[in-house]
Amino acid sequence: MAVAIAPPEEPGWFHLVGIHLRKDLRIEWRSREAIHSMIFFALLVVVLFSMAFDPTAAASREIAGGVLCVATLFASVSALNQAWSREIRHDVLDALRMTPADRSAIFVAKVLANFLFVTVVQALLAPVFFIFYNLRPLGNGWLLLAIVPLGTWALVANGTFFAALSIRSRNRELLLPLILFPIFLPALLAMVLAVKTILTGDGSDPHLLWLKMLAGYDIIFMTVSLLLFDTVLHAE
Amino acid sequence: MTETEHGPSQPLSQPPSTSSGQLPPLSAPTPVAQLDDLSRLFGSFAALRRIQYTFLPGKCYVLLGENGAGKSTLLRILAGLLPPSHGTITLFGSFTPAQACGRIGYMSHAPMLYDELTGVENLAYFAALYPRSQTLSPELALQQVGLDPALPRKVGQYSQGMRQRASLARVLMAQPDLLLLDEPFSNMDIQSAHQMVALLDKLRQPGRTVVLTTHQRELALPIADCMLTLHAGQIVSEGSAHRS
Hints:
The complex is a heterodimer of chains A (236) and B (244). Chain A has eight helices and no strands. The longest helix of chain A is centred in the N-terminal third of the chain and has 32 residues, at 58-89. Chain A has one domain. Chain A is mostly helical. Mean pLDDT of chain A is 86; it is low at 1-8. Chain A has helices at residues 13-31, 33-52, 58-89, 92-97, 104-132, 144-165, 172-200, 209-234. Chain B has helices spanning 71-79, 119-127, 138-144, 160-173, 190-204, 217-220, and strands at residues 2-5, 33-42, 45-55, 60-64, 86-91, 104-107, 178-182, 209-213, 226-231, 234-240. Chain B has 244 residues and is α/β, with parallel strands linked by helices. Chain B has one domain (7-13, 30-240): P-loop containing nucleotide triphosphate hydrolases (Rossmann fold). Classes of the chains: A mainly alpha (236), B alpha/beta (244). The interface between A and B is medium-sized, with 26 and 31 residues.
């Protein structure tokens, strides 16, 4: 016997995340504001640093991890600022605040969207980076596939939260890096040192401590951000 | 229109129970919103001062007053977007604005829509955030306000009047019991404004309460049941409009 399944009355949490994410991706696809500014800025940093250092020297291998992380960090600040400025441009955020849907889904969708944008930029940047710095991983190269996403998640989760926190500030574009950079510092340090270990193959981190630290950082900050987001959203 | 003048320090009120302890009549409708000694401060500036008022269901209230009188602040408090500094607000009998948010529709000066999406895309996005049985279809909501749902233009390319209509469609789509409209006729030509008035009149029929602010008193007169004038954060006069 065929049983008709009625559609769910209330949208589920994952469904809500999907709705917000689809909207964010559609808007970015049409405007390309975040991606364009990020690509331009990241390329600029990588090219400028490659000119400042001799790319054939062993020293460039030492600093390459730092350059990659700093390029990602600075480039993503512009995207993080834009993520919420779309919501406040025509008071859309007020309309979202008035819906009965769970607001934490808005935050998670924004983090996911920003993560995708930064990952796209990193994917475009990677070949340029490896060519300009004449790099090849001497350690476990595949670990980069875990370290870079974990570090990126730490950046966008923190950045999205603090961008929401500074949303009503007059100098929000200045305020975001001032709050974000010091708090992101432990994750940045872990990311830089982990990438350096892999690129140089020096074997100084056999127990993957930096990787574990990044994972722990992600879990703690994501949990705290989720718990506080509703308060931040309704703050005056 | 008959008008009753009150002193600036004397709060207006029609609570369901009287100060003499008499119980309200059994047929008394549950107030849509009850403001009790409501004040709102921005730093040392008092945008609203000790407002005492009851909004009844199925009526259209028009808030009048000069810029800075507190009209928009009052609407934002009713919408739950701004907490009062003092006093309480009770919606639909026993709810706070946060608890009743799904039953309130708020239209501000800004369209509250994304420029990069079309009217239907915007409305479909917001519709997905409400329980499915509660919402009208985006197409129907746009048709109600006289916009073509098939219009492929992004909202950013709409005229100001079209944005106002699309914004109203977003509010109507959720079928709210309390409709809060902040200057719905601003930036509209006279013909569009009259169409908006006719639409609001139609919307009031199923017992929905409408509270709107405007500077164009004569436009709102045909639909107003009650005209409230705010001055320096207080309701200074209340007039009951005689509708034809």
